[in-house]
C-alpha cells in the first residue's frame, strides 16, 4: 500500500461573448484610460459524466466544469446552486497590447495570492479560497480580446498523499461511510442553501441524515471522522478539482497538526435515482508519504503558489477571443458608430453628453444637397432618428452633388427623394431609424385654388402632416431651395418650442443660423438683450415672404453654387445643433459676446455665456468662400417679424389653418397683420418730408 501524491485537475476558463460586450461598454463609458482592477464574480459547477451511447453499459464521458464569466459577472452573478458556485475575481484591462505583454505577471499573481493568504490568516474565512485573476487587452476596433486567467493555488509542503490502492472511490461504495439517504440529504442542503457553499463539512452522526455546516467550523478533535467536502468541477475519477488545493492549504494553516483528512469531492447536480449512480468521489488523504515524520510549522509565511492557465497549445500564455466573425454585423455597426464618439470623452471632452445627442429626433425639411450632407453628418454624431421630407424626385444632375443618391435612382422619372435618401441612410448604418415622406409645404404668396375642393383639402392634410412631424421631433432643419418655403415650419417650430436650424446657400456664400426660442412667459427676462432674444430667418425683412419661384430663368431655377459650399454649410448647421444640445439652457442658450475688433484672442472658456463644452454657440454664421472667411452675427428678434413675432404665433395658435390660408392667398396679409405695411408707409412719408439742401458749389466734402 504505497501512497501517491494527490494530482489536481486544472480549472479551465470559459468566457461568454456577453462578458466581452460588457467589458467593452465598461472600457468605453467608465474606465476609459484607467487600468484599475475591477471586481467581478465568476462561477463554476460540478463536473459532469455523460453516458457514452457507443461505449456500452456503464460507459461515461467526463466533462470538467469550467470557471465561467459573462455579462452578469460585473454584477451580483447568478443565484447560488450546485451548478453556480460563486468565485470572486478581479479583471485588469490594459490600454495597449504592449502594456499587456509587458505586465509584471509575477507581481500581479503574487499580489492575488497574498490577498487570499491574508484573508485566511486574518478572517479565517474560505470566501477567497477560489478567487481568481484575469488580465485582458481589448482591441475594440477589431473585436479581438486577449486574456489570461490565473487561479492561485498554494503548494503544500510536504504534499498531500492518497493510498494508491484505495484511491478516490465512489460514494456509492459500501466503505464510503455515506448511505444513500445521507447523500440525498447532502444534495438537498447544498441545493437549497441561500449562500454559495464551495466548501463545507459533512457531519453524519445520524445514519439517515447528514448535516452540512461551514468548513470554518471544522475541529480536528471532534470532526476526525467527518468528511470535508467541496464542489468539485473535475470529472476525472482519480484527480480532484483545483479548488481542493486551497482548501487543504487552509486546513493546514489553521490546524497545523492535521495529518489526515477525509475529503468528499461532490460532483452530483441531481439526486441519483439508484444507489450505484452517485458520481461524487471520496478519499482519505494524509500529509506526506509516511516515510518520515511530518514537521509541524507555524503557518505565518505564505506557501508558494501556482495557477496561471495554459493556452490552447498547452503552454503558459494568454488566449485570444475573436468575436468579429460571430457577432451580428448590425450590432457591430452600432458599436462602431459609437466608438469614436465615446473616445472623445476619454481625454478631450469628458463631460460630453452623448446620450442626449443620440436621443435627439431630427426632422430634415429638404432632401437635396443640404439634406444629404446634414443627414450624413448627423449619423456621424450618433443621431438615431432622422426623418426626411421632400416633394421632389431624383434627377440626373443630383447624384454628383447629393451623396445619398445613385445614377440608378434617376431612371424611370426618378425615385422620390425623401424615401430614397432614407433607404440610403439605412444602407450606410442599418441601426438608424430613418424615414422619408413626400410632402409639399404650402408657401405664402402661392395662392391655393378654391376649386376643385380637393386641392384645399389636400393642402390642409399637408399642413396637418407637417405639424405632426414637427411635433414628433426635437430639432427641425430648414434645407429647402426657396425662401418662402421656410416660413410655415418657422412659425410652427416657434409655436411648438422646437430647435429650428436654418441653412441657406448663395453662389459662394452661406448662412447658418438657429432660430431664437419663444421667451418663457413664466420668467422675467431681459428681452432687450439681443443675445438672449434671438431672431429668426425673417427678422431682418421689411416685407412678407412672397413668390420667388415664378418667372425664373434656368440658372435661377437650379441651385447654382460652388460645389464645396453645401457640405460646409451642412456640417456647420449640425455642429451648431450639437453645441446647443450641450448647453444647460438648450434652445434658450444665449448667443456669445462678439469678439472685439481689437482683440487677438480666439479662445473661449467653457462656462462663459453663450458657450458649451463644444465651444461657442453662435446665433448666425455667414460664410464667404471667396474670402475664406466666416462672420459671426447676432440678430435680435423683431416684434414685427412675419415668422416669429408674437402677433404671428398667436394668430397661428388661435386661427390655425384659416390663418395659414390667408397668408398663402394674400401676399399683403402678413404685412398687415404685423404692421409692416404701416412701417413702410411711415418710412415713405418720412422720406417725402425731407428737404434736400441745394448744393451751394462751395468746396468741401460731398456726403
From TrEMBL:
Q: According to its UniProt record, where is this protein located?
A: Cytoplasm; Preautophagosomal structure
Q: Name one Pfam family in it.
A: ThiF
Q: What is its main location?
A: cytoplasm
Q: Does the keyword Acyltransferase apply?
A: no
Keywords of the record: Autophagy, Cytoplasm, Protein transport, Transport, Ubl conjugation pathway
**Annotated ranges, domain Ubiquitin-like modifier-activating enzyme Atg7 N-terminal:** 6-327
Among the record's GO biological process terms, what is one?
protein modification by small protein conjugation
Recorded GO terms, molecular function? Answer: Atg12 activating enzyme activity; Atg8 activating enzyme activity
Q: Which GO terms describe its cellular component?
A: phagophore assembly site
Q: Please state every residue range assigned to the domain named THIF-type NAD/FAD binding fold.
A: 344-586
Catalytic-site annotation from UniProt: 558
Q: Matching NCBIfam families, A to Z? A: E1_like_apg7
Q: Describe the protein's quaternary organization and the partners it interacts with.
A: Homodimer.
Q: What family does this chain come from, according to its entry?
A: Belongs to the ATG7 family.
Job description of the protein = E1-like activating enzyme involved in the 2 ubiquitin-like systems required for cytoplasm to vacuole transport (Cvt) and autophagy. Activates ATG12 for its conjugation with ATG5 and ATG8 for its conjugation with phosphatidylethanolamine. Both systems are needed for the ATG8 association to Cvt vesicles and autophagosomes membranes. Autophagy is essential for maintenance of amino acid levels and protein synthesis under nitrogen starvation.
**Protein's name according to its UniProt entry:** Ubiquitin-like modifier-activating enzyme ATG7
Which organism was this protein described from? Dendrothele bispora (strain CBS 962.96)
Amino acid at each position: 500500500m504505497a501512497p501517491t501524491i494527490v494530482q489536481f485537475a486544472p480549472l479551465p476558463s470559459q468566457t461568454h461573448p456577453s462578458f466581452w460586450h460588457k467589458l467593452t461598454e465598461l472600457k468605453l463609458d467608465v474606465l476609459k484610460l484607467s487600468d484599475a482592477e475591477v471586481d467581478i464574480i465568476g462561477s463554476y459547477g460540478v463536473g459532469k459524466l455523460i453516458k457514452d451511447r457507443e461505449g456500452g453499459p456503464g460507459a461515461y464521458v467526463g466533462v470538467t466544469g469550467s470557471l465561467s464569466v459573462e455579462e452578469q459577472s460585473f454584477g451580483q452573478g447568478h443565484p447560488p446552486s450546485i451548478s453556480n458556485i460563486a468565485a470572486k475575481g478581479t479583471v485588469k484591462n490594459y490600454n495597449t497590447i504592449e502594456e499587456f505583454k509587458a505586465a509584471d505577471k509575477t507581481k500581479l499573481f503574487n499580489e492575488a495570492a497574498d490577498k487570499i493568504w491574508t484573508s485566511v490568516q486574518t478572517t479565517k474565512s474560505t470566501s477567497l479560497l477560489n478567487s481568481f485573476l484575469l488580465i485582458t487587452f481589448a482591441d475594440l476596433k477589431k473585436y479581438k480580446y486577449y486574456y489570461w486567467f490565473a487561479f492561485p493555488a498554494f503548494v503544500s509542503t510536504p504534499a498531500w498523499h492518497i493510498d494508491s490502492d484505495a484511491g478516490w472511490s465512489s460514494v456509492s461504495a459500501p466503505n464510503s461511510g455515506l448511505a444513500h439517504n445521507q447523500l440525498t440529504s447532502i444534495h438537498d442542503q447544498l441545493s437549497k442553501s441561500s449562500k454559495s457553499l464551495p466548501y463545507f463539512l459533512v457531519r453524519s452522526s445520524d445514519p439517515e441524515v447528514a448535516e452540512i455546516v461551514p468548513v470554518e467550523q471544522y475541529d480536528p478533535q471532534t470532526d476526525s471522522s467527518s468528511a470535508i467536502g467541496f464542489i468539485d468541477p473535475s470529472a476525472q475519477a482519480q484527480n480532484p478539482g483545483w479548488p481542493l488545493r486551497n482548501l487543504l492549504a487552509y486546513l493546514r494553516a489553521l490546524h497545523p497538526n492535521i495529518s489526515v483528512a477525509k475529503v468528499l469531492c461532490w460532483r452530483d447536480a441531481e439526486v441519483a435515482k439508484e444507489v450505484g449512480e452517485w458520481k461524487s468521489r471520496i478519499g482519505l488523504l494524509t500529509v506526506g508519504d509516511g516515510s518520515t515524520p511530518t514537521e509541524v510549522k507555524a503557518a505565518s509565511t505564505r506557501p508558494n503558489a501556482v495557477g496561471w492557465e495554459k493556452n490552447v497549445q498547452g503552454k503558459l500564455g494568454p488566449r485570444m477571443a475573436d468575436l468579429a466573425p460571430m457577432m451580428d454585423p448590425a450590432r457591430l455597426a452600432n458599436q462602431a458608430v459609437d466608438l469614436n464618439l465615446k473616445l472623445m470623452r476619454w481625454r478631450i471632452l469628458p463631460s460630453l453628453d452623448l446620450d442626449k445627442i443620440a436621443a435627439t429626433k431630427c426632422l430634415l425639411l429638404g432632401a437635396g444637397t443640404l439634406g444629404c450632407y446634414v443627414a450624413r453628418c448627423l449619423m456621424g454624431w450618433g443621431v438615431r432618428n432622422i426623418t426626411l421630407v421632400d416633394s421632389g424626385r431624383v434627377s440626373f444632375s443630383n447624384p454628383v452633388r447629393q451623396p445619398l443618391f445613385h445614377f440608378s435612382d434617376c431612371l424611370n422619372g426618378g425615385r422620390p427623394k425623401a424615401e430614397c435618401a432614407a433607404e440610403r441612410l439605412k444602407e450606410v448604418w442599418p441601426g438608424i431609424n430613418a424615414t422619408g415622406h413626400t410632402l409639399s409645404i404650402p408657401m405664402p404668396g402661392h395662392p391655393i385654388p378654391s376649386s376643385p375642393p380637393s386641392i384645399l383639402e389636400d393642402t390642409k392634410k399637408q399642413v396637418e402632416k407637417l405639424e405632426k412631424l414637427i411635433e414628433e421631433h426635437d430639432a427641425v432643419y430648414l434645407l429647402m431651395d426657396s425662401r418662402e418655403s421656410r416660413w410655415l415650419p418657422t412659425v410652427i417650430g416657434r409655436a411648438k418650442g422646437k430647435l429650428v436650424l436654418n441653412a441657406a446657400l448663395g453662389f459662394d456664400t452661406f448662412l447658418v443660423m438657429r432660430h431664437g426660442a419663444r421667451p418663457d412667459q413664466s420668467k422675467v427676462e431681459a428681452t432687450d438683450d439681443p443675445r438672449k432674444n434671438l431672431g429668426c430667418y425673417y427678422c431682418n425683412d421689411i416685407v412678407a415672404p412672397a413668390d420667388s419661384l415664378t418667372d425664373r430663368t434656368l440658372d435661377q431655377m437650379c441651385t447654382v453654387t460652388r460645389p464645396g459650399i453645401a457640405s460646409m454649410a451642412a456640417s456647420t448647421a449640425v455642429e451648431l445643433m450639437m453645441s446647443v444640445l450641450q448647453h444647460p439652457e438648450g434652445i434658450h442658450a444665449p448667443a456669445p459676446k462678439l469678439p472685439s475688433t481689437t482683440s487677438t484672442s480666439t479662445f473661449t472658456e467653457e462656462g462663459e455665456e453663450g458657450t458649451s463644452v463644444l465651444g461657442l454657440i453662435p446665433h448666425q454664421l455667414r460664410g464667404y468662400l471667396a474670402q475664406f472667411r466666416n462672420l459671426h452675427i447676432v440678430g435680435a428678434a423683431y416684434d414685427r417679424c412675419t415668422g416669429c413675432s408674437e402677433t404671428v404665433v398667436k394668430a397661428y395658435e388661435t386661427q390655425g389653418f384659416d390663418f395659414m390660408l390667408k397668408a398663402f392667398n394674400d401676399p399683403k396679409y402678413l404685412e398687415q397683420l404685423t404692421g409692416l405695411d404701416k412701417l413702410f408707409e411711415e418710412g415713405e412719408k418720412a422720406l417725402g418730408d425731407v428737404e434736400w439742401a441745394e448744393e451751394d458749389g462751395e468746396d468741401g466734402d460731398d456726403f
